[in-house]
Batch of 2 targets.
Target 1
Amino acid sequence: MPYSINVNGAVREVDVDADTPMLWVLRDVVGLTGTKYGCGVAMCGACTIHVDGKARRACFTPVSNVGSAQIRTIETLHETAVGQALQRAWRELDVVQCGYCQSGQLMSAAALLEANPRPSDDDIDMVMAGNICRCGTYGRIRAGIHLAARYLNESTTGSGQ
Amino acid sequence: MMCRSILVMIAALGTSVTLAADLRPVSTFKKISNRTERSAALFTEAARVLEHPRCLNCHPADRTPTQGDDLHPHNPPIRADEEGHGPPGLPCNTCHQVQNTPTNVTPIESIPGHAHWMLAPPSMSWQGLTTRQICEQVKDPARNGKRTLEKIHEHLALDTLVGWAWNPGAGRAAAPGTQKAFGELIAAWIATGAACPADRPADR
Ligand code: FES
Ligand code: FES
């Protein structure tokens, strides 16, 4: 069945079954392979994308549920201020180990900072508990989110560089 | 052969057989002549739905939903706010779709979903309460969302999120009976004075 979906600011025509998960539409049809598969059952967060700015697990979000919503994937996260702050913090703290989980971690972290610009450790743990990292980079992820929040705060108060 | 004779026996018993998964129809309570006792018995039967895991899992004792028939903590870990949604950045619909969604991964056959998927408010937590305590809470406007008994009936008999309990998706047992039969029990309970059952000795 044909669907017009809005991915990273461009309308894409895809012809797939109504129950096809967005993860496979993005990876196999649109060709955006930054979004990863981990579990397929909402347990790991590797497949996190944004749908109208909110985090969504793509591994079982049927394409028919998305409609005309704006979808953002890891490939364009850097276009947002939050995405830039997260990338800078991630590089600064060398957060990544193998990297497999990290696009999902960054998409979840971005959704968290959009909703809560100054999260506490507890706020971070509550949201990021849905994202698993087999390499165990949790401590650096939490530190990276705090650092990104600081960069964002400095840029809005004008005290940043 | 054995199965066949059981089927013959059930057929012989006709409509008087109520399977464990069914709810007793309101008509079967008529033989309780005392109105208050009848009302309490009607609620006790309706409570088989309220105390079913499909309902209890989203009426937890604290702000952490539970899962499965054994009410184990929700995985991934989640803590809902007072309104019943996930923390900022992780609303319920990050994972829960507007409908039950099959997975291709065993043993989780489907992820439950509904357009208004959310946790019950803290004042309506049921886990750990006795049937009497749930009954009193359901009647109490200070805890039931300021609902009159009429509104309680409307909510329980017609709300589609309540109705999810009978349409819980693959891999999950539905609540007993039907929402219609449940609504009839609640209506009859209200019509007979909305009495609450006494705690059973084991509850005290
Ligand atoms: S692949 Fe979607 S949550 Fe694990
Ligand atoms: S960095 Fe390896 S799984 Fe997270």
Target 2
Amino acid sequence: MQEINVQYVAELARIRLTEEEETRFGGQLSQILEYVDKLNQLDVEGIDPMTHAVPLVNVTRKDEVQPSLSNELALKNAPASLNGLFKVPKIVE
Amino acid sequence: MEYEIVIGLETHVQLKTRSKMWCGCVNQFGGEPNTHVCPVCLGFPGVLPVANEEALRLTVLTGMLLNCGLPKRAKFDRKNYFYPDASKNYQITQYDLPSTLKGCVEFESENKTCRVGITRAHLEEDVGKSSHFDRVSGVDFNRAGVPLLEIVSEPEITSVQMASDYLNELKTILIYGGISDCDMEKGMVRCDLNLSTRPVGQKELGKKVEIKNMNSFSGARKALTYEMNRQIKVLRNGGALIQETRRWDDAEGMTHSMRSKEMAHDYRYLPEPDLMPFEPETAWYDSIRESVVELPLARKRRYMKDYGLPPKDTETLVSNPSLAGYFEKAAEHSKKPKAVANLILNNLRACMSESNHSVDDLKIQPTHIHELVQLVDSGKINSRIAQEVFNAVYESGKSPQGIVEEKGLAQVSDSSTIDAFCDEVIKANPKSVEDFQAGKQNALNFLKGQVMRLSKGKANPALVGQVLEKRILNP
Ligand SMILES: [Zn+2]
């Protein structure tokens, strides 16, 4: 059984969990890890790690400018805005 | 005990592309806030980034200019963190398989040739820009997603001066290669400084202190100097340093520990699932290799060797690529490249800064400079008149020869004319003539000046001197 520091993971994800949730998710995450751990039983000697399952490389686009959104449209979904900016809680340096 | 410092630098440079890294928004400084944005660079759900081929090309070109290895396979990764200026809550960067690896920069510092290793130059994206108000902050994402190259040096820099020379050389190389405009005012270059101190003779590095986000080289210099002195003082007093991030406060001229606010970083890098890896073909590398330009240091050495220019003049030219290009065109067929350089460094630069012109705006052409030097060299005009001709060509873009003819500025070397001028001056200044006969050399200079004035500056000064001397001493 793998131990997971659920509090730490929750902090990294910026979410707050109740004690009950912490226990429940902890169990679930351990199960997932255990499942993934099955891969460790495979012999992968001499096999290159891959980051994608699709054998595709060098996907690029030409350096061409396309129209952008208007400021109004860009901010339309923002919970709050100010002088054309996305308004956020005060950032402390 | 004596101490020494070790510096490593991470330099972030915005690439000179038309569009952003993953979307078609314009890569352009300024603009009304949040008008160069789209669903991709705003990090909306469901969008897909597509890599800008020009940014990849410029990255590889930088690798070539910095003598880097070019791995067969490169990929992008997500660096996860929460900060309001990161629209996606992660930054796309290259973690374990960067596009370039292990190179070096060669430059001159304190009269020595130095070489600093480059760990890697990898491609990532810039983040948004935040403004701070009384109780809230605001974010403008115009800059988010602009291609950003991070150039990491090895910890091999051993003085503040060397760090400064490294940064300037790097900047010049990037401008030469057309990689970036490196406009500091527009925030196109920023750097993180790593500095540690150790007793001389100790092999292991001292505790690393990182100072992040310097946006000027002069600021970097000041921060490094301050930090060096601080660290040495702590060690001298028997204290211990810790590995930490410090912030440079330009107004106070000090660094401050950021320890209290900083949580241990855990970026949880993972391969960017939305971008396929890159396995460039040889032909692509070959086509980029054609854009490799002569490096500034090589150019500097060539100017000194081929044109016999002094180091200081060479440096001034080389650090300004457009002026250097102008000089080369002017000096190409000249027998007097030094005179060409002087005109460019003194007259041309003075006029340019006075009228706020860049090389592209100039009416005066490199061939004009060459012609002007020839006119002086052949005795057609004297060097004082050359200044007048220069100014006229600068203003009008007409040829120097044409100006000389139009204004009748050709040097007067005709002996009967000069004789007549000299006679007139001798007659009008009996006192000075006497003085000169009595051995006062200054008196001759005065008389010479009078003749030049009478000739409106056009007389051949050497000839005037000879004639005066002959006529006064052996009348
Ligand atoms: Zn965009």
